[in-house]
Amino acid sequence: MNTPVIIAGAGPVGLTAALALATRGIEVRVVDAAAGIDQRMRASTFHPPTLDILDDLGVAAPLRDEGIKVRRWQMRQHESGEHVSFDMQLIADKTRHPYRLQLPQQRLCEVLLEELARRGVPVHFGATLTNARPRADDVSISINGLGDLRANWLIGADGARSAVRQAMELDYGGKTYTHASVLVSTTFPFHEELPGLTDVAYCWSARGPFSLLRQPALWRASLYPGLESLGEASEEDRVRDWLAYIAPAAGDADIVDISPYRVHERCVPTFRIGRMLLAGDAAHLNPPSGGMGMNGGVHDAVNLADKLADVIGGEDESLLDRYSRQRLFVASEAVIP
């Protein structure tokens, strides 16, 4: 017997898509190769329209309770302290959440998992999708730990190394930056050291740009050391020297995590081939500024879930081509630039 929808990927995108489908009464199953929720330092910004979406799905309340509500954020010249501030209360007539919410994305995954469990939606960790073959009316799928399955529809929300995208034989277009970036998490209280600093600040300095984002228990600093080697860029002495440049006392701060990465600007040419569809990082990779990857992926998820539920309910499959056109345009023309 076929499962109506199988989703590969139990990150924020896959789990959001699962919940959006479940709220429409669609039977869905989620599989993920990892042993559990990814606890690495990833996105931490939730934008107003994303919060509105999550509120409609009934999962925004615990995030609002735990996260930092940033009603003003700034662009800042580091040495002089000059800055321009953006007051998000000015969009209060357009959203129920006129602020940026700062909270690690894994907390969203935990809340989504709890809601899916309450609804009886199965989520299988340690289940690696090894093969997917489209057929006339369904998709044949092989998953380690679960065996061979059939799905009427397969959604790939399984990240940059997406097995679903590979099964669709789609390549990313675009480029990867040669220079390394470094995300540093620290308990150092930058707000106590830098006069007038808001909880989110994008900064320019004589040394180069950096950004500071506050979370409930720590600050995250995004650094751009101008090196190609990820290893060299993330050396602790080099990181501490950068932190000391931002605030002298931060050089001796407690560092919770150092994560080097490369910035990508990539997108597939289509988000749909037959009964196989892509969302989130499986379809597009973009610079991490502002958390647009996670936010854009959540928007992919609800757009796709709404249209797929309509198609399962009897609407024409061309709705899914519209999903691809809409989200491809957003990713390539708005988010990536």
Provide a concise account of the structure shown.
The chain is globular. By secondary structure, the protein is an alpha+beta fold.
Give the N-terminus to C-terminus distance in angstroms.
Answer: 44 Å
Helix/strand/pairing class, anyone? alpha+beta
Radius of gyration: 21 Å
Which shape, going by the Cα principal axes? Answer: globular
Number of alpha- plus pi-helical segments = 10
The average pLDDT is: 94
Low-confidence stretches: none
Number of distinct beta strands:
19
β-strand percent reads 25-35%
Helical amount: 25-40%
Sketch the major β-sheet.
Answer: 8 strands, mixed
- Secondary-structure element pattern, one letter each: EHEEHHEEEEHEEEEHEHEEEHHEEEEHH
Tags for this entry?
19 strands, 31% helix, 8-stranded mixed sheet, globular, 31% strand, alpha+beta, 337 residues
Describe the structure.
This protein is of the alpha+beta class and 337 residues long. Helix content is 31%, strand content 31%. The protein has helices at residues 12-23, 48-56, 60-66, 105-118, 163-167, 190-193, 230-233, 236-246, 292-312, 318-335, and strands at residues 3-8, 28-32, 45-46, 68-70, 72-77, 83-87, 100-102, 123-125, 129-134, 139-143, 147-156, 173-186, 200-204, 210-214, 219-223, 255-267, 272-273, 276-278, 284-285. Strands 1, 2, 8, 9, 10, 11, 17 and 18 form an 8-stranded mixed sheet that branches. The protein has an 8-stranded mixed sheet with strand order 6-5-13-14-15-12-16-19, sandwiched between helices. The mean pLDDT is 94.
